[in-house]
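User:
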Amino acid sequence: MPVFSSLFSALYYVVDSLLALYFWIVIAAVVMSWVNPDPYNPIVRGIRSLTEPVFYRIRKLLPFTYVSGIDFSPFLVVLGIKFVQVFLSRLMQQMMF
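Assistant: Predicted structure:
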């Protein structure tokens, strides 16, 4: 049993780290939308290629996320990330006891 708990703990930390990294990528995409950087910059292209498919799916599923020129899809992505992080942490706490 300790092997499985260690495996699940390691998987939890990897998933949590990836979610935290994507959270910061979404924040960077939001800041970039305010500043309008050079679209040919490789960093800008990388961040947009990582975030736009997710934002597009949210806009397609929930059309009310784009209201009066303001896009709320990054906000929903951040809420989703935090929800998954809290859910997984509570699940890991329950599995350890």
